[in-house]
From TrEMBL:
Keywords: Cell inner membrane, Cell membrane, Membrane, Transmembrane, Transmembrane helix, Transport. Residues 97-304, 400-594 form the ABC transmembrane type-1 domain. It comes from Microbispora catharanthi. This is ABC transporter permease subunit. The chain crosses the membrane at residues 32-54, 101-122, 134-155, 178-206, 227-252, 284-303, 334-357, 406-430, 442-463, 469-488, 529-552, 572-593. InterPro entries: MetI-like, MetI-like_sf.
């Protein structure tokens, strides 16, 4: 009879040997450790600021204990009452909220009409110069958003604000306050800046509509209104909803234009109200306003995601030949081209030339008063805070150096971090870590820029544990700029790593190459296109960024954008215009070089 014996369990290796084995594995494949490091870093830089600003909204600040009847540092609902229910809640929140909604609605309608009309013109018609128009009509977004507001002031400014009056007022034509400041000029100038969003989104959607669907419906006897209602609009809904929500989200967080055109008429929106609360050192009120802006931003993006998911069932099935058929404009081809030129002129040439002429004339746009003093003079009469031309002194050069240095470093950090996030998400074996990194790296996109800046200020303004106070340092500006642009680089990194197979890295690993060598000689060289894009695009965007940095810069860390707004505060309109032109020139140059380097175009595909 056979005797069955229980197999003996082999003895476990000593603890030191197991630890040595894990270290060897970690040396050859530190993806798990890298993932944990990224989780901690992004958790502190992205999640912690939002938690800090939420905490400040419910924790009594020093100086408010007398009014609230509580001790400083205690949990409180005082700031909620002050913002939503007190006697000044209308001034603090409700009126700015109403003004924000009015501006957002007006800007959306303006951008939809202008951008949608131009999208149809360059994608679905045989208008002459379609490809050139498609590229030219995207140019307004390359300008800083408050370029248009400064040009508007140069033309329509009246005596209500300090400093030199605008062109019309100087010519004896009185411009009323409603035309010079407030809702109308803010809507028009923001609409001119953001209509390229609609042009790109709607234009790409129009290109995908199969003309055979429309022809089939007409052959079956459907009238034009039925074709539009049952075919065209359903196919366009995803692009239209994305365009609307994207513009609303951008308007919610924009600061420069409402500040320049709203401040003289005391027209506040949520972003300028938040800035004013921080300037007044009302930290608790500012935290509540920032939380509201964050919530609205998150709701907008989630709504966009849900609507896009719901509308995925509206798809086009057809041949490309039918899709590319263009409407023949016949006799109105050249008048349509002239209309496109007018839009380009109003949105690009008029503001840029207005700013340029204002910087070389003492009386706005009066060439008989031509001067180069605002650019080159060693001494400007009557100027105190900025007593010389922009090219004299050190202010412009210091701000330019700060901009190039801070934005450049932030862009490099952003690109490398985005690729590392993509590497861990795609190559890692921990699904929870991958999910966390994917979601948290995208979180800054949900938060309007000025609200995220307020959250970062709330976290880093004072020392917290081993982390010192970073307010007023270039390090904080670099961190915040890198984090706010991380959604773009991380999505680019994830897409790039998804398209790269494991074979090259596995072959190097078999050959004995350590992880750092594999990253430096295989992953980064292969993904240099994604790295270049991840560096250059945040660099271009960061050069003209104001909402994110306006609350974080100090005397030693001033950027070109904050220098321009500071000159507006002084009432030196011509000098502010000159600085904006410098920003626009650098932005144009970098955009052109980027498109040449990557062989791409912002309007690729729109013009055929």
């Amino acid at each position: 009879m056979a005797v069955v014996t229980k197999a003996e369990t082999p003895p476990r290796p000593p603890r030191s040997r197991r630890l040595l084995y894990r270290l060897r594995v970690l040396r050859h494949d530190p993806t798990a450790a890298l993932g944990l490091i990224l989780v901690v870093v992004l958790g502190y830089l992205v999640v912690a600021p939002l938690v800090a600003v939420l905490s400040d909204a419910f924790r009594l600040q020093y100086g408010d204990d007398v009014h609230a009847g509580q001790a400083a540092g205690e949990w409180t609902g005082y700031y909620l009452w002050r913002v939503f229910r007190s006697q000044i809640s209308g001034l603090l929140f409700w009126q700015p909220l109403l003004n924000t909604l009015v501006v957002a609605l007006g800007t959306v309608l303006f951008a939809l009409v202008l951008g949608g009309g131009m999208a149809w013109l360059v994608t679905r018609t045989n208008v002459p110069g379609r490809k050139w128009l498609a590229g030219a009509l995207v140019v307004p977004y390359m300008l800083p958003s408050w370029t248009f507001s400064l040009a508007w002031l140069t033309l329509f400014k009246n005596e209500r604000a300090g400093g030199q009056v605008g062109f019309l007022q100087a010519q004896g034509v009185h411009t009323p306050d409603w035309l010079a400041y407030g809702a109308l000029p803010i809507i028009v100038t923001l609409g001119l800046h953001y209509y390229p969003f609609v042009l790109l989104l709607v234009g790409n959607a129009l290109r995908r509509i199969d003309a055979q669907l429309v022809d089939s419906a007409r052959i079956l006897g459907a009238p034009q209104r039925t074709v539009v209602r049952r075919i065209v609009i359903p196919l366009m809904l995803p692009a239209l909803s994305s365009a609307v929500l994207l513009v609303v989200g951008r308007v919610l967080g924009t600061f420069g234009t409402p500040y320049v055109l709203g401040l003289p008429a005391d027209f506040r929106v949520l972003s300028t109200g938040l800035f004013q609360s921080i300037r007044d050192r009302s930290t608790g009120v500012a935290s509540v306003l920032a939380t509201v802006i964050v919530v609205i931003g998150v709701v907008i993006v989630l709504a966009d995601t849900r609507m896009t998911r719901e509308h995925r069932r509206f798809v086009t099935v057809g041949g490309k030949g039918g899709m590319d058929r263009l409407s023949d404009l016949r006799r109105v081809r050249w008048p349509a081209f002239a209309l496109g030129l007018v839009v380009f002129g109003v949105s690009v040439l008029v503001p840029v030339l207005t700013l340029l002429l204002s910087t070389v004339t003492r009386t706005p746009l009066d060439l008989s008063t031509f001067t180069l003093d605002y650019w080159l003079a060693e001494r400007l009469p009557g100027a105190v805070g900025f007593p010389h031309g922009v090219f004299r002194g050190s202010e412009l050069w210091a701000a330019a150096w700060n901009s190039l240095r801070i934005v450049g470093l932030a862009s490099v950090i952003c690109a490398v971090a985005g690729l590392l996030v993509g590497y861990v998400v795609v190559r890692g074996t921990a699904p929870r870590v991958a999910f966390f990194l994917r979601q948290v790296s995208f979180l800054p996109y949900l938060v309007p820029g000025i609200a995220f800046a307020a959250a970062s200020l709330s976290l880093f303004a004072v020392a917290r544990g081993p982390i010192p106070a970073l307010y007023g340092t270039t390090f904080l500006l670099i961190l915040v700029m890198a984090v706010t642009h991380l959604p773009y680089s991380s999505r680019s990194g994830i897409a790039a790593m998804t398209q790269l197979g494991r074979e090259p890295e596995e072959a190097a690993q078999i050959a004995g190459a350590p992880w750092f060598q594999r990253m430096g000689r295989i992953i980064f060289p292969i993904q240099k296109g994604a790295l270049v894009t991840g560096i250059v695009l945040p660099f271009i965007s960061g050069l003209k960024e104001l909402s994110i940095v306006v609350m974080l810069t100090t005397t030693g860390t001033e950027l070109l954008t904050t220098l321009s707004i500071g000159l507006v505060d002084y009432g030196y309109t011509q000098l502010a215009n000159a600085v904006v032109l410098v920003i626009a020139l650098v932005s144009f140059t970098m955009t052109y070089l980027t498109q040449r380097l990557t062989k791409s175009s912002l309007a690729s595909g729109l013009g055929g």
